[in-house]
Amino acid sequence: MTGNTHNTKFPEKGCSIEYIKKHMKIAYKMDIHFKDGKVFNSMCTAPLPQSVDAYKMFIESNLGNPNLYPGTKKMENIIIKEISDLLHLKNGYGTVVGGGTEANITALWVARNYTGKKEIILTKSAHFSIIKAIDLLGMKPVFVKLDNKYQMDITDLRNKISKEVAAIVAVAGTTELGVIDPIEDISEVIKGNTMIHVDAAFGGFVIPFLDHLKNKKFDFMIDSVSSMTIDPHKMGMAPIPSGILLIRNKNIVNSIRKYSPYLTSKYSKSLTGTKASGSIAAIYTAINMLGKEGYRKIATSCWENTLYLSRNLQKNGFNTVIKPVMNILNISVKDPKKWQKYMLQHGYYVSRSINPSAMRFVIMPHIKKEHIDNIVNTMINSPFAE
Ligand code: 0PR
Fold first, then answer.
1. Ligand 1 centre from 60 Cα, in Å?
2. One-character DSSP codes across 99-114
3. Among 83, 143, 187, 262, which is 20 to 30 Å from 366 by CA?
4. What is the pTM assigned to this prediction?
């Protein structure tokens, strides 16, 4: 760690914290920060400062060994009850995990072990963590087409469903478009003990809080929904890492349990061993500081900003792929890669959607109206504005 040259040897002796901090400041300056209003490609945002303090307070607690930390465990139980209430789950199972990927892998692990089946039905819109889960678990993907609204096509689902299907993965807030699959219709198609896993990693903290979506049925209100992913580190305002997995039938989690006699609990029912329990205090703080009222304000403001961005781009000749459903906006452009490169040259981080090809903006709480005005100006002044 000297100047611009990087020492690759494990240090013989420690150096001063001032010296280390000096280098960290350089690294920090190199990184992009949400407050600069240039990050339009992230599903995470600046967490509530009080949540960060809460995380630090519980920094050494490890719920992988729960009986050492009854206080942290109690907070986890409270969070799970609160999220269950929000998502209409009664007497289910819930656990705090490291994020959407871990929640999705665990859900499919339970589906495989509980049903003894190998097929997973999904669409191209499913997040790649589902593909990871299928790969890890030796399962088989069965792809169902998207309809003209980019939702799971129910007719094709009817053709593809079979007795071999362990679970159907529906998404409530797809990563690319923010679309909600028709989960009520999906539930009418299922056969036997096929499970429905709803990936609401992004939408879970959005759908219940937006006026135009609040009557949308996407959660345990639908009887055949068996499990759900919801991520506090996305629209839940908690720091990374934090995800939540909810399962309707608490007994089926035993299908993945492993004997862990040397710990303070007899069985481990999670993918990871050590569990970053600071996340639990952080989520507990966010949920109880904000309440429904706070989340409603945040989601509504992101939604209004999405419409503001959409209106301003449309006024200047750009077209949206679909009318946005939540705070994700996709713009049809001929060459999204070229646009992404141009935007990056101007300091903006936007992403591309693949299905369908488009320029994608996620309008998170760190994006304010003036940031939108600036990005719109950058776009209309581009040499290839459409
Ligand atoms: N399910 C859905 C619907 C998601 O959108 C994501 C992540 C996941 C599951 C997986 O969640 P974790 O990343 O917490 O495991 N979607 C974002 C993505 O892949 C994650 C992300 C967030 C990426 C911030 C970049 C970033 O800067 O695009």
1. 26
2. SHHHHHHHHHHHHHHH
3. 83
4. 0.96
